[in-house]
Amino acid sequence: MTFKLPELPYSHDALEPYIDKETMEVHHTKHHQSYLDKFNKVLENYPDLQNKSPEEILSNLNDLKVSDSDRNAIKNNGGGYVNHNIFWQSMSSEKQMDDNLISEIEEKFNSMENFKQKFSDLAKTHFGSGWAWLVRDDNKQLKIYSLSNQESPYTLGDEPIFCIDVWEHAYYLKYQNKRGDYVDNWWNVLKFF
Ligand code: MN3
User: Fold this and answer.
1) In CATH, what is the architecture of 21-90?
2) pLDDT tens digits, the chain, 193 residues: what are they?
3) Which of 106, 118, 149, 156 is the most buried (most CB within 10 A)?
4) Spacing, Cα 80 to ligand 1 middle (Å)
5) Cβ pair 81, 36 in contact under 8 A
6) Measured in angstroms, how far is the CA atom of residue 138 from the centroid of ligand 1?
7) How remote is the CA of residue 176 from the centroid of ligand 1, in Å?
């Protein structure tokens, strides 16, 4: 076992009623675990990669000396592992206001409302499985975008700040097809503001 499933910084029911306990349990202990297991499995072939951080591996994804099928497995499962780590850390039952980030967002996106609108639109309209991201690019500028499946901002050279998972497994038990309601409610559990 190279990498491990992180403990959540809160209990599985801490984000109720916005994200229900059952979804959190299945999402963390089954989906996240499964990405991790497959990521560790493919790394068994590459002892040199086991000494790197998962973020470093994803940052260098296209230059790794691995087979094409293993590169794909690392993209999907290493991406799935790291993306979920960031997602859990993006949320909390208690706000931990980040005043610097708030000012920066207001400056970059004109207002917090405008930012939330744009970010929500990305999350709601992303076609199929994926994530919406707030990241910092290599000029330290804030940027938002959505990425498909388990693609990682690290592979694009960006530093993730927070994200929302819009795979159906992230909301289907409680919200069924209503991704929009899930996204609207998610702002209540985003930790930073
Ligand atoms: Mn997920």
Assistant:
1) Orthogonal Bundle (1.10)
2) 699 999 999 999 999 999 999 999 999 999 999 999 999 999 999 999 999 999 999 999 999 999 999 999 999 999 999 999 999 999 999 999 999 999 999 999 999 999 999 999 999 999 999 999 999 999 999 999 999 999 999 999 999 999 999 999 999 999 999 999 999 999 999 999 9
3) 156
4) 7
5) yes
6) 26
7) 15
